[in-house]
Amino acid sequence: MIPQSFKDIVSNVENAGFFQTLAMIIFILFFLVVVYIVINRPKKYYNEEENAPLEKDENENQTL
Length: 64
Description:
The protein is mostly helical and 64 residues long.
């Protein structure tokens, strides 16, 4: 029998609920860590990236 979906594959694995719960916990922890890091960066950290689209490139006038 060929499984028709990911759900069919996972449902045949022993302790599938545990692995799904573990994966969700890891994902939530990773997401919270990334949000924490981004929020705690100083505003000066983002100044260079904030103005990048407005700055002129040094190599803009050079031809290949």
